[in-house]
């Protein structure tokens, strides 16, 4: 098992080699360098404006295919220049400026309909809007200001694209490494089910959230690998390597997801023997080995492979054999022994797949990798950028439209307060609003809390630094460190990012000779005012509560599991195995599972009065996770025996009843009154494959899935959404 020291070392390596650190370093160089160069020529104001343009371009430069990043940076650069130009003219009239604030806040918030990257382009435009409000300029100054912002955006875009040309695979390596590490974390959490006295509900919560994170990482890798021309062609060993490692990691995750037996029942039978503790230890060691592979991917190195794993797996197998030889009906059930054997086989398969992934590092170096047969076109999504999509969302049924109304209203209120207050930097109020307000109340609440805490602590740190550090060179070094910390953590941990951001702003004001005690106080006041406005708007103005959207999420989850089950069970009843439709459906299950886990987590952060049927929703989430796990177990049998699969006609009644139960659960959730339509029951088949261990296990798996489907049907009756 990994020691505490090794865990800490791995966490540090994981962070330093992550794209968060690399992105933060790139953004820091792109934003700071123009100001540093022009500062030498006493052109500080021009340098700061160019840095602002670079910062705006960097906002849209999030991980993804290089074509998407390039287009987003260029659109953002042009857009913020135009916004700066318009705001410059509008600044001569308070009324006109107020109209521009409301109109732009609404339009740029509506960009959420086109996805996350487009919404970040809107955020960049709103950033320029808020920072340009307090300045009245002549026509020549407005033109120069817009031109400098354009120059900054182009400079940063050129820097980012140049770094990609130098290291075209770096981001894909880092993102794939993070995906592998998250799968390792999933396995580590799942190993907890073999620990005596485990809190199952708490562990399931962790598992479901981790599964959602794994899905996010898988989607990010999918976008990078299958939408990047260099990798899709797999014309290089590096491109082939990344694709086959990802494909094997997906299959490995399915094996880690599978469940062969009730954990509670296993503990009842085997806790006194102690064998479950050994299962936990082996799974943790496998997780450590997989994490080692993830770290090697991120560092562009080679993983160390543990030589003790084969011995531990052999010892575990022997322990099961000894247990089986001493078996008696009074001590253990036959199905319990079979479950241990099946879990052991699954662990061995996980080990073999990890060893296989490890071998790819050596094959890549020896140029032995061959092109994979992955049909990438089936596994990527395409964003729609038509005006029709924008227009279709201009109604109160659209969550994005409601969010845009909230943002524009909050910005108007913040603008009015800023105009009538005597603060020196009242645009900080509007800046707080745009960075805090998110489409979901729970996200706004979390961001608000992080912003406030980070600002208060950051002000304290800033005051301490400025009180005790007088040397300008030392202050400048601290300033650069704070800027780097801000950009490294801004997408990783917002509260830490704000904690770095506040001292760097205060030190910057000190360098410009503009710092006073009032600035410290105003920084906190503006954050409190902006945060309060954002919170009230999210809570009272066209609020978006999770229970309002929950019906769709629950139905989509059952729908995905039903399709998954239908696809897998059909292989047992004569349909020929085809991995493409199977993998497409499997991907959809992972996506819907992540959506459900995220929705539950957001709902848990909302006011108690809005947490409708939260206990039932949690149980629903756990049951659907079990359903997916049991189906994955059947699927593993198919993938490993697709050439000699037997037909299981006797189980067709069970399969049909399972699908009926799941369909009826969807009907209940879709109905407004939650009426119980039918009194459905579980079909029992006894001794279907007596004395045939493997076939008996498959039979029990079908019956267990039916039981879970029945539980989903029953819990659906209790959910009020």
Automatic annotation (TrEMBL):
- Domain of life, per UniProt, equals Bacteria
Extract the InterPro entries matched here.
Answer: Memb_transporter_dom (IPR049453), YccS_N (IPR032692)
Which residues are in the Integral membrane bound transporter domain? 414-536
Name of the protein this chain belongs to: FUSC family membrane protein
Q: Which family does it belong to?
A: Belongs to the YccS/YhfK family.
Q: How does it sit in the membrane?
A: Multi-pass membrane protein
| Residue ranges annotated for the Integral membrane protein YccS N-terminal domain, each copy included | 74-350
Point out the signal peptide segment: none
Cellular compartments annotated: Cell membrane
List where the protein spans the membrane.
Answer: 72-90, 96-113, 120-139, 145-164, 451-468, 474-490, 495-512
Q: Which PANTHER family match?
A: INNER MEMBRANE PROTEIN YCCS (PTHR30509:SF8), P-HYDROXYBENZOIC ACID EFFLUX PUMP SUBUNIT-RELATED (PTHR30509)
Q: Which UniProt keywords apply?
A: Cell membrane, Membrane, Transmembrane, Transmembrane helix
Pfam families per record: FUSC-like, FUSC_2
Q: Which organism is it from?
A: Arcicella rigui
